[in-house]
Amino acid sequence: MGLRELNPAVWFEIDGIEADLIERKTLIDVKREIVFQELPGHRAAAIEFSNLISANLDTFHGKRFRINPDGDHPFIQLSDEIAEDLCLLKKIEGRWILVAALVVFPSRWDLREKIGLDIDAIHGPVPGYTTDLQPLMSYTFDRITETRPVWRRNWSLHSTPELHEPTYTPHNAMPNQYWWRTERQTLTRLPQQDYLLFTIRNRAEPLSWILNDPVAKSAFAETLRSLTPEMVEYKRIVQDRDALVAYLTD
Predict the structure, then answer these.
(1) Does residue 193 belong to any structural domain of this protein?
(2) What is the pLDDT of residue 130?
(3) What one-character-per-residue DSSP string does 200-213 give?
(4) Which residues in the chain land under pLDDT 70?
(5) Structural domain count of the chain
(6) Pairing between strand 150-158 and 4-5?
(7) Residue 89 falls inside a structural domain
(8) SS3 content of the chain, % helix, strand, coil (to 5)
(9) Across-strand partners of 102?
(10) Residue 67 belongs to what H/E stretch?
(11) What is the pLDDT of residues 155-209, one digit of tens each?
(12) 153 phi/psi in degrees, rounded to 5
């Protein structure tokens, strides 16, 4: 899974997020049922996590923001301050269940189809998940403590810079028109409770940036070559994988 210990000082990335915050507010206003979902009974945990986030923003970024417990859902309130998507997980009968989430920038998945599912069902479409990751996922989540949060990165290639993509929409694009999308993900546990907060910071950059880094360019070309047919299909680059490799190796 590539998890690394998270420094609380960089739990959130707040530099240069103004445009993202504006877009997120618009999407929450017009597509709330698509980007926000919650199951009943978990608001107190969401408030507690949100208070921890507010304290973190105050300590490390000088942002004096406080959650109104009588206002809108705390994840919605936080959308004025941070650009991360927020997913609340609760361990119920031995399974980690997605019980509340604000996912404004999904990468080809629909929150409405995932709410209430456990982490194995959520990740079921990922090639190799049942054999490679499923035996480790719950065990790894169980071992996360409030004093040792973790983080990782994920990547995908998209043919547009659009960050709000709950469903896959094909677009014809040349390799130099592709966008490198990354997700900086963190996992934090609520003290003395079986709740985890999963955050996702989404970014999209032109793939062409990698041409300026010969080492990264070569390594990524090899990564694309090594993908299984199932993973190539999952990442939606069946038609363009060879062209992308050639673009990176010319």
Answers:
(1) yes
(2) 66
(3) EEEEEEEGGGGGG-
(4) 1, 127-135
(5) 1
(6) antiparallel
(7) yes
(8) 40, 25, 35
(9) 36, 86
(10) none
(11) 999 999 999 999 988 888 899 999 999 999 999 999 889 999 999 999 999 999 9
(12) -125, 150
Taking the C-alpha atoms of residue 159 and residue 207, their distance in angstroms, rounded to an integer, is 10
Yes or no: say if 38 and 49 are a contact pair by the CB < 8 Å rule: no
Q: In one letter, which amino acid is 107?
A: S
Q: Show the tokens assigned to 185.
A: 């993900």
| Alpha helix segments (H runs only) across 31-78 | 32-35, 43-61, 74-78
Residue at 123 is within a domain: yes
Extract the tokens encoding 247.
């673009």
Amino acid at 237: I
Phi, psi for 235 (deg, rounded to 5): -85, 0
**Cα maximum dimension of the chain:** 58
Q: Is residue 101 part of a domain?
A: yes
What pLDDT sits at residue 115? 98
Partners of 5 in the β-ladder: 150
Task: Give the separation between CA 237 and CA 115, rounded to whole angstroms.
Answer: 27
CB-based contact 182:248 (threshold 8 Å) = no
Strand order in the sheet with 179-189: 4-5, 150-158, 179-189, 195-206, 85-92, 95-102, 36-38
CA distance 124 to 134: 9
In one-letter notation, the amino acid at residue 42 is H
How far apart CA 214 and CA 84 sit, in angstroms, is 31
Q: How far apart are CA 234 and CA 237, in angstroms?
A: 8
pLDDT at 240: 93
Tokens encoding 11: 């739990």
Domain housing 187 = 4-155+183-205
Dihedral sign from CA coordinates of 23, 28, 31, 37: positive
What's the predicted TM-score (pTM) here?
0.93
pLDDT at 87: 98
